[in-house]
Amino acid sequence: MKEEKFTHIDESGRVKMVDVGDKEITKRTALASGFIELPVMVLSQFTDGEFSTKKGPVIQTATIAGIMAAKQTSSLIPLCHPLPLSKCDVKMEVRQTGVFITCEVSCTGKTGVEMEALTGVSVAALTIYDMCKAFGHEMNIRDIRLESKSGGKSDFQNGESQKTRE
Predict the structure, then answer these.
(1) pLDDT by residue (tens digit) across 90-144?
(2) How many domains in the chain?
């Protein structure tokens, strides 16, 4: 069995950016999700899936923020490669206790888009927090996770990694 090692650390223990120069160009996709719990008083303000504050419409603004964040992931996460995204779809669903957020990202390239999807969800949730904090800080951002990814040497679905290529 092959010993797993951190890809962003070299043989001498120094941080490095992974060299993707020899990797195959493939279509890469990733889906991430997360949830922000909101107080009942904030949730009661939502009408038809939207809530406007002095800062503007919460869901629309958070959607745009999630897309912008996904596109800027390499500026936020030090060792991420800049990627030309071909798709970024942030969706939100107001539920009984908060807002469920998904971000689906794709590109054609030599490295995956997992971090872009996770960043999109994270910043969308933070934007909701920012826009609703005037009503109280009893909010909880939780369960941000990768739901699936495809492309590259392995696919991931529902918590199970499946090797597709060596």
Answers:
(1) 999 999 999 999 999 999 998 889 999 999 999 999 999 999 998 889 999 999 9
(2) 1
Catalytic member of 19, 22, 89, 130: 130
Is 10 annotated in the active site? Answer: no
Could you tell me the CA-to-CA distances from 64 to 92, 97, 123, 140, 160 in Å, in that order?
11, 22, 10, 21, 31
The phi, psi pair for 84, rounded to 5°, reads -85, 100
**Residue 131: φ, ψ to 5°:** -75, -20
Write the CATH number for 135.
3.30.70.640
Backbone angles phi, psi at 44, to 5 degrees: -70, -15
> Does residue 1 sit within a domain?
no
Please tell me the pTM assigned to this model.
0.87
